[in-house]
Amino acid sequence: MSNLGSLLLKRFAAFADTPALNDSGGSWRYRQLADAAIALERALCGAGLAPHEPVIVPVANEVRDSAALIGTWLAGGVAVPVARHAPVTVIDAVRAATSARFCVTNAADQLLTKLGSRPPYRSLLEGAAIIVLTSGSTGRPKGVVLSHSAFAGKLEAIDSMLGFTPRTRTLLVLQITFVFGIWVLLLTLLKGGTGWMYSRFDAVEVLTTLRDRRISDVALVPTMLRKFLSLDEALSRPLIDGAATERILTGGEPFGRELSWQLQKLMPNTHVVDIYGLTETCSSDFFLLAHEREQFAGTIGRPAPGVQFRIADDQGRELPVATTGELQIRTPFIMNGYLDESEMTRSAFADGFFRTGDLARRREDGRVELAGRIKELIIRGGAKISPLELDHVLVQHPAVAAALTTGVPDSIAGERIHALVVPRANASIDEKGLREWIAKRIERYKWPDVYHFGLELPTGRTGKVDRNALRDQVLQAAADAGA
Fold this sequence. Notes:
By secondary structure, this protein is α/β, with parallel strands linked by helices. It folds into two domains: about 5-355, ANL, N-terminal domain (Rossmann fold, 3-Layer(aba) Sandwich); about 380-480, ANL, C-terminal domain (GMP Synthetase, Chain A, domain 3, 2-Layer Sandwich), CATH 3.30.300. Helix content is about 30%, strand content about 30%. The protein is built from 14 helices and 26 strands. It has helices at about 5-10, 30-45, 65-75, 90-100, 150-160, 180-190, 205-210, 220-230, 235-240, 255-265, 340-345, 385-395, 430-440, 465-480; strands at about 20-25, 25-30, 55-60, 80-85, 100-105, 110-115, 130-135, 140-145, 170, 195, 215-220, 245-250, 270-275, 285-290, 300-305, 310, 325-330, 335-340, 350, 355-360, 370-375, 380, 385, 400-410, 415-425, 450-455. Strands 2-1-10-9-11-12-13-14-15 form a nine-stranded mixed beta sheet, with helices on both faces. Helix 1 packs across helix 3 (about 65-75), helix 2 crosses helix 3 and helix 8 (about 220-230) crosses helix 10. The chain is globular, with a radius of gyration of 23 Å. It starts with a helix and ends with a helix.
């Protein structure tokens, strides 16, 4: 069975003295990356890491993070990437969910933190490479377990569509806690390319890097691309004109025809590849390549190698052309399952097809158009966020009686998160206090953008709390204000 760590190390030998990765702290060659990963492997094995044991790997898009992932794999562990600067409560929740007893404090210095006793054996982690934590419609994060063989196979399939080479120079601002960022990083390294890693996205800084570093490929979500368009033209024009980027890889949220047209006008010599995929399928299940954009505009393109799909109703029956149903995918590059959630894993499939939760329809030409979402997930800046999780965090505040969050369309972020809060009787609370409260309990990318205060939550005909009604109220208020 393939081990991503061993596979990477074999490739590194051919590029030993070539620059591999760069960050704000400097540059590492492939030899240095390999040496750091091997040293961490020894440290983990010496500490008693068991085969297939989860290891928490805090990351911040720094070069040392790559060594931490590879060293964990070489030692036989299962990497659990989490944001290095996440609140302590988040790290504690990850530890509780995974039963991990080791945390890689600093891969460059082989520093480990021991968190507890040896976790129980789980058959689901046999052959596993990584546990990616992703928001779920139930309100609690899901641990998606991806195997070495599935991820290695998907990397090969992606490369057959994109063709990375040793001349590939990538810019990575997507966080490597997410599967999109992870595969861009790994594919760059597997092919002997060179990457520049940034811990945060700044539109001007990214455009400057595209110009000065002669980047060939940059991975961005549509929200980041919209920020290019929103820059002052006098500031951005010289940077855009000087950017020689060959290809923009985008995904994580719908790209849209209007954004495609605006971007093509802004950067006419750059090819845009729109990618659709899910964490559970190791990402990148459909590609809309640049040369196909005009002919198949409005679709998610063609399936990647190894991907079969169908549009089905709620009984699993395949629907005819132009009929809206759920997009379902069958692929060998599928997750092992959700960690410690056997029933959730079982219900995620129908006759061997993974249920994406996305509504879609097949066109006459065989291409697929997305038509919305079944699940109540907010997509802001390409990140999928459970509104139910936010509700649960907000109502834990001692002054909050009830809370409801929803996503509202936004021209830059795709969606913005609005939270309606009902204070307890005689309680005092303000927006500043809520922001401070939530900042200590969930990751930054999940923080609500706008807070509203009211006496009650909106309900539907059956008396149940209605998230869509809140969304409609926000939109109506905005329309009335603009009238």
